[in-house]
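Me: I'm a chemist; would you kindly supply a protein sequence with its structure tokens?

Assistant:
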Amino acid sequence: MRYLILTYYKKPSGQVDEVMAVAKNLKTRDHATANVILDFKELSVVKCSMGGVNVPRDFDRIVEYYMKYYESAITRLFKENGYDVEYTKKDAEAQPAEPNPS
């Protein structure tokens, strides 16, 4: 697999659903409907727009954001495309090891 594809759908109730998929190749439909397309072979952002607003195309920043939600899929994409990934959750680093007794 090469691409991470994220699509957001707005329901009539106002709720937004997110659909994540991985793919070997991009289809015309993916370019038309997806909000975020990341290429893990070239480590690049193919598309990134939210509600018609273009978001900065910083691959590392986008991957870091989605890693919280799709860690196993993203790690697999990196490995399948020949990259070693060492990722530590920032939340775990921010927590003190021992409570402060004072």
